[in-house]
Amino acid sequence: MLSDTIAAISTAVGEGGIAIIRVSGPEALPEVQRMFKSKTPLTEAESHTVHYGHIIEPQSGERVEEVLVTVMRGPRSFTTEDVVEISSHGGVVAVKRVMDLLLLQNIRLAEPGEFTKRAFLNGRIDLSQAEAVMDLIRSKSDKAFSIAMKQSEGMLSSKIRNLRHILVETLAHIEVNIDYPEHDVESLTSQFIKDKSSEVMKEIDGLLHTAEQGKILREGITTAIIGRPNVGKSSLLNALAQGDKAIVTDIPGTTRDVIEEYVTIRNVPLRLLDTAGIRETMDVVEQIGVERSRTAVSEADLILLVLNSSEPLHQDELELLEQIRGRQVIVIMNKMDLPSQLDRELLTRYIAEELIVPMSVKTDEGLDGLEEAISKLFFSGKLESADLTYVSNVRHIALLKRAKQSLLEAYEAADQFIPIDMIQIDVRLAWEQLGEIVGDTAHDALIDQIFSQFCLGK
Prior knowledge:
Layout: E1 6-9, E2 18-24, H1 28-33, E3 36-37, E4 49-56, E5 63-72, E6 83-89, H2 92-104, E7 108-109, H3 114-121, H4 127-138, H5 142-152, H6 155-179, H7 190-209, H8 211-219, E8 221-226, H9 233-241, E9 259-265, E10 268-274, H10 284-299, E11 302-308, H11 315-323, E12 329-334, H12 344-347, E13 356-358, H13 367-379, H14 394-415, H15 420-438, H16 444-451
Parallel strand pairs: 1-7, 8-10, 8-11, 11-12, 12-13
Antiparallel strand pairs: 1-2, 2-6, 3-4, 4-5, 5-6, 9-10
Helix pairs in contact: 4-5, 6-7, 6-15, 7-14, 14-15
């Protein structure tokens, strides 16, 4: 497949100032040249130059589009192959006409993520860097973007390769002991294996220490806003989203379905779910909404329970507090601009005092307190140092945990003076598991599955 020349639209489909079509492969320059008219032939153009001209219909010579064409000769390109990028006018029709002509040449439509896959297969980037490319595109906050940028630059890869190098040295010593048992290799002792295993496990622990924060920054916190009808749930969503995303009325049961909105609070992305008011009702449609609300609560990472502080705690609310006990919960005492009738002492039997936030969504009073409570709940009030390597990918986290377990088994085996060739199995397994992170030991099916999740044109 790497001998093919591929093309795809790299910008979002729709109206816009420009659209970019990327072509990569051994025949990129001559094939595009057949349909491009300019002063300088692309086949003679220097690398990293931009050329003005027109896309023409090769047979009739009819002008199809006015474009700028960028030439990047391999290996100094993203894929390390010859790459041509055609910048045309934005819009569905203009881009389609250019793409149709390209696919009539000796060029095929690229698969999702195939440009990045070629960069990986050609050795320009490793697998963790390739995954970071998609994280850059999907970033929902500045911090998430910063983490993905560092990973795309190879910060995580460098640490993983260093750990694998330590394990390779350990395996080499083990091989010497197995192949030449008659020689007394002083460094190859059970203590040596224990020391090396401990060293790598300590580094893995350092990476896993920031994993939960990294995962949250990458994927966001699924946050369910729950409560009885008319306590201010939709108003809270609107206040956090800084816009009228949900309908707000005095009529109970206005929200019939789960409304979803993404917001960023203190650099942390939240996937807000405004739910239907949870109560007993005879309305069939509202019953469906209430059931969906309960489902959202069961799947949420964070629950914002909104109470009306101007009313005593209702039995439904006491039942809700009992149901969500032990979960990540922040209770919002809304409508603090009205005389309070809510028994706060009773409330603290179910929830810690520091997780109770007084607010008036109507006047925006208390929003800062809510943001502070969320930050403390998930990040102890602050993020880790910016120079730390965050592990945010679920696949990477799982592999790090498995590698640590393999090394722990090697350590315990060495501590019990198990034969060296048995310990070798666990050390090699840890080396392979770390290799899957950067793609050195990843099997083809995994690689195909990862790149299939990429968008077309990337």
